[in-house]
Amino acid sequence: MTAGHPFAGRRPVVCFVTDRIRLLGTRGLDAEGMASMAALAGEAARAGVALVQVREPDLDAKPLCDLVRACCEAVAGTDTRVLVNDRLDVALAVGAHGVHLRSTSFPASEVRRLAPPPFIVGRSVHDAEEARRVAAGGGLDYLIAGPVFPTPSKPGAPLLGLAGLRAVVEAVDLPVLAIGGIAADDRTTAVARTGAAGVAAIGLFAGAADFQEWRGRLAEVFRRFDIGAEASLD
Q1: pTM for this entry
Q2: What is the pLDDT of residue 214?
């Protein structure tokens, strides 16, 4: 991986996944909401978040393009990269840094034909067998595996669990981020012990009273991940 790539020598990699309903408490996205989401992306970048995944699947192309563009402007001048969830057309049109593919999406190799490196391509997986299959197809920079723990984003979904996460990590030669129920507590330490490269989260960023509390949560995630990563080497 080239210097400056989010996964080049960085651990943990933290990915901020947007969800305006949980983060802003609104289904609409007016100018104020757009500015608020972009401000969150900018604050995440300054706090050390490597990836911002714009995941707003119900937005039409125009407002989604506007939101992605605003997030890209908010992280300008930092090492943070903005990815669009599954909408390669939007990512290419706006000049985002990459795309995150759903588990049911088209192969990453097709993305590579349209967007060569340094465009970043990730994909969601739910077990080790799926991880091996998509990794063998080539074109991927990383995987997001989960849900590891119960999460309100996917109520009732089958859980991958820590053993399943470790199996995914051991199945592929790609960085793996854990998602689902990630918090600034012992769960993050346990994730690090599996060998995962980092975490992706929505809830971690929701409900904070202000940016100071938000930055504190992130700092604790980094601290607890470091503890778990060191333990995994013993």
Answers
A1: 0.95
A2: 86
